[in-house]
Design goal:
The complex is a heterodimer of chains A (125) and B (498). In chain A, α1 crosses α2. Chain A is built from 6 helices and 3 strands. Chain A has a domain of 83 residues: Arc Repressor Mutant, subunit A (Orthogonal Bundle). With 125 residues, chain A is mainly alpha-helical. By secondary structure, chain B is an alpha+beta fold. Chain B has 3 domains: 67 residues, no CATH class; 184 residues, no CATH class; 186 residues, no CATH class. In chain B, 54% of the residues lie in helices and 14% in strands. Chain B has 15 helices and 11 strands. In chain B, strands 1, 2, 3, 4, 5, 6, 7, 8, 9, 10 and 11 form an 11-stranded mixed sheet that branches. Chain B starts with 6 loop residues before the first helix and ends in a 14-residue tail after the last helix. The chains are: A mainly alpha (125), B alpha+beta (498). Chains A and B meet through α3 of A and α2 and α3 of B.
């Protein structure tokens, strides 16, 4: 079987934006614009994604099987005509596994880095 | 949301979307364009440039992402998992057609065996470094007579060279001999050995693997009851016991003390030599000058070339001719011949071996052509198989790899059988060759020869397999299906089919 670009059992770390998108979609399906707004809100404006980049990320994750378009019936909010023109995306079970394993990996990496006194307390050497 | 439609702005955004891959545009194009649906009222040029830079960068990035994902998928489908599957598939396919497989293996084995045998000789004689120290400094010195280019010298002549030469740092004389080992030391047997001067080991620059070699003192007449064993004899007769040093071995000529054991790859003067005992030249009682029964090798002093040694030997020859005119008559063509050691060992066989190697190379090409023919004969089966695999999603790369694997498996099998055949051939041919030529042993365990033969037959197999399958692999999948479809039941004419 061909190996996927992303791996639920390890593999290279996901990019930050990819992981943030998975985190947002983990709470329920969203359309592109809402995803970008939610990311900005959750990171207190530290991560903002331009539309061009956002859809590049969605395209990449969709190709990798991490997310998929959500059918109308799966939308948890009130759909209007305008909303119906937009595609909502939802996380796939595979994407959920990848998000979980990647978050764990990332927290271990952060813990390993912060466990160094020179990094944690800004000491020299 | 778009209060004031602007066709120019929409066209600009549409054009920018072209930076993205087609699949992206089909899936996300509209959603992305929605974000840019409303042109700004002010600073429209700046906004257009911003949108242009964002979309162009992200679009090209998306294309790169696509390439990266495709590369990873292709690399993994060409990885170990796929390889194992393909290998299993190949082996199953070959077992299903035993007659075809065995014919191909036999064809490659014949050519591979010939190539292995000849390459074995070539490698042992011309390519492999001799197991001596700095072989370029070692020469063989012989007599030249009418009709004889490089023959033995007498003990007296050898002593003359030792006394008069200034270009040689060490000169050694030796002769082959056989020895009967008495039953006291185990099974009685006849051993091939050599009587050599103590300088023999200095000339060759080799050291024993165990113990020591004899000294010039032990080389003197009456002091020469010592022996150096070959590695093979040490293992065979003494079980490789390191306490063998100092023990004696009884020949029919008397007992000799064992001084040392030579390394396993020391085949001088012949591959079969199993022991070395001192030549023990007595300068006061040498055989007549005309008794030409000793061979001479020498190590050149560092600064001298073979040409310089030849000049010196010519001078010495002229002196000897003047001093002993009756021994070297003018019409006899006598002179001294100096040859580099390898040239002496290989002699006239260099050209013959090289020619033979080219010839058996052609035999391998013919075998490759034959294998190709055999594969073409079952091309229709193959075509159907490739079509099925292609229809199931196998890429041209996978199909090519499968063909290469089949050729590789057949080639390696042919090469392995060929190495066994080649070993038999070497031993059959060996009896027709001079003793001094090193004869390759069991070819299958000789890394260089086995590597050469297996590479050659594997390449022949792969070239044949790929040549046969190339057309089917490179053809478009749809065309493959048409080509592999069974012919219509009844065809009246070509036009009737359309």
């Amino acid at each position: 079987m061909a190996r996927r670009e992303f791996d639920a059992d390890g593999g290279p770390p996901l990019r930050t934006t990819d992981l943030l998108v998975l985190a947002v979609l983990g709470d329920g399906p969203q359309h592109g614009y809402a995803i970008a707004q939610e990311i900005a809100a959750r990171t207190r404006g530290q991560v903002t994604i331009r539309p061009g980049d956002l859809y590049r990320v969605l395209y990449r994750m969709d190709s990798a099987g991490l997310i998929e378009p959500a059918p109308l019936s799966a939308r948890g909010r009130q759909a209007s005509d305008w909303d119906d023109r937009r595609t909502d995306y939802r996380i796939t079970p595979f994407g959920r596994r990848v998000a979980r394993s990647q978050a764990r990996l990332l927290s271990e990496i952060c813990a390993a880095v912060l466990s160094r006194p020179s990094v944690a307390h800004g000491e020299a050497g | 949301m778009s209060a004031r439609p602007s066709p120019g702005w929409d066209r600009w955004i549409g054009a920018l979307l072209l930076f993205y891959p087609r699949r992206f545009r089909q899936r996300f194009g509209e959603d992305l364009a929605d974000h840019y649906r409303t042109p700004p009222d002010r600073h429209r040029l700046r906004a257009a440039l911003h949108a242009g830079s964002d979309l162009a960068r992200a679009g090209l990035g998306a294309r790169l992402d696509d390439h990266r994902a495709r590369w990873i998928a292709r690399a993994s489908s060409g990885g170990l998992d796929g390889l194992v599957v393909d290998l299993r598939h190949t082996l199953r396919g070959l077992c299903r057609r035993p007659l075809f497989s065995l014919t191909v293996i036999a064809t490659l084995a014949l050519a591979g065996g010939l190539n292995a045998a000849v390459f074995g000789f070539l490698d042992n004689t011309l390519l492999r470094p001799l197991p001596v120290h700095d072989e370029s400094l070692i020469v063989s010195i012989g007599s030249r007579w009418n009709g004889f280019e490089h023959s033995a010298v007498s003990v007296r002549e050898y002593l003359d060279y030792v006394e008069r030469s200034r270009t040689l740092s060490a000169i050694a004389a030796f002769t082959g001999a056989s020895f009967n080992v008495s039953a006291d030391d185990g099974v009685p047997e006849r051993l091939l050995g050599a009587r050599v001067t103590a300088s023999f080991f200095d000339v060759l620059g080799v050291h024993p693997a165990l113990g020591r070699v004899f000294t010039t003192v032990e080389d003197r007449p009456g002091r020469s009851r010592v022996v150096v064993l070959s590695h093979a004899l040490w293992i065979r007769r003494f079980g490789g016991d390191p306490r063998v040093l100092g023990r004696t071995i009884r020949f029919d000529s008397g007992t000799h003390e064992i001084l040392g054991v030579m390394p396993s790859d020391f085949p001088f003067p012949a591959a079969e030599t199993e022991l070395w005992i001192p030549l023990s030249i007595n300068p006061a009682a040498t055989p007549p000058r005309g008794a030409h029964n000793r061979l001479v090798i020498a190590r050149m002093a560092g600064d001298f070339s073979v040409e310089r040694v030849r000049e010196e030997m010519s001078t010495i020859a002229r002196q000897l001719q003047q001093e002993h005119p009756s021994m070297y008559p003018v019409g006899s063509g006598w002179g001294l011949s100096v040859r580099p050691l390898r040239e002496h060992l290989v002699g006239d066989f260099r050209l013959a071996l090289q020619t033979l190697m080219v010839a058996v190379g052609f035999v391998l090409l013919i075998a490759c052509a034959n294998v190709t023919n055999l594969m073409v004969a079952r091309a229709s089966d193959r075509e159907a198989e490739l079509t099925t695999r292609s229809a199931l999603g196998a890429s041209a790369f996978r199909l090519a790899r499968q063909a290469l694997l089949e050729g590789l498996v057949l080639g390696l099998a042919g090469g392995a059988v060929g190495l066994v055949l080649g070993t038999g051939l070497v031993h059959a041919l060996g009896s027709f060759l001079p003793e001094r030529l090193p004869i390759p042993d069991w070819l299958l365990t000789d890394g260089r020869v086995a590597g050469f033969a297996l590479t050659m037959t594997a390449m022949a197999g792969m070239v044949a397999a790929l040549t046969t399958s190339a057309r089917a692999i490179t053809r478009h999948p749809a065309a493959r299906c048409v080509a592999a479809a069974p012919p219509p039941m009844r065809v009246r004419s070509a036009s009737a089919r359309f």
